Amino acid sequence: MNHNVITLICLLLFAYLIGSIPFGLILVKLFKSTDIREIGSGNIGATNVRRAAGWGLGFFTLVCDVLKGAVPVYISAYLAGSEMACNDIWVSLTALAAFFGHLFPVYLKFKTGGKGVATAAGCFAVLSPPALAIALLVFTIAVSLSRRVSLGSLAAAAVLPAGVMWAQRSMVLTGCALIISALVLYRHRDNISRLLSGTEPPLFGK
Question: How many CA within 13 A on the CB side of residue 21?
Answer without folding.
Answer: 18
